[in-house]
Design goal:
The protein has seven helices and seven strands, in the order E-H-E-H-E-H-E-H-E-H-E-H-H-E. It is α/β, with parallel strands linked by helices.
Length: 250
Amino acid sequence: MTQRVLVTGGGRGVGAAIVRALALAGFNVLFTVRTAEAEAEALIASIKTDKPDAAVEARLLDLADKAAVEAFAATLAEEPAYYGFIHNAGMSYDTLAALVDQGKAEELMQVNYWSFVKLVGALVRPMTRARAGRIVAIGSIAADVANAGNAIYAASKAALAGYCRTLAIESARRGVTVNVVAPGFVDTAMLAPYAAYRANVEKQIPAGRFAGPEDVAALVSFLLSPGAAYITGTTLPVDGGLTAALAIQR
């Protein structure tokens, strides 16, 4: 039986790369989108061109809508068990820490953190009963390395990592792994506002370039593979060595 996988925010960028990699690897992939309907259709068509028998489907879901997330979670709980869950969807909110608007911050936490908690609650129990499951949250190096104006985004990713560590030790004996993949700068539309600073930023990354979405997707694919069965409760950076480097440049 083909293993089923759910990916949130799979319509574009890193999410689309993850959907493609997993579908081409033979998984039955369901992914959610909020507004990227056209992109989702194009992605599915492209995957089908490369793999005509690929099983891939998109569903509309606004993770900022608590009621919609709860309804979706209830639906998932009634479906056959999923083998994998990748929480990629996320939103950003840039402002100085002292100027945070609570309403905007709560919306970001709902998308980046609370929606994951709700969905994983519906998915992990069937995984533990099946004694097989892989959960991956897309975090960020911002959870561990401060960047001015990034307080709430960083806090949401830190909360995600903390939750995943605990879930990992609670579910490990039941054959479920839980890990965080923490990208650095990835070449997607989310970084468009930083285009003017790109050359300067790339000079400070030991690898000398931004990550491509496929760099992140490759690690996610590995974490869903048999070879990653003993990796759980950890955060794996995909940052070209950025967090390993001393911040002060001589």
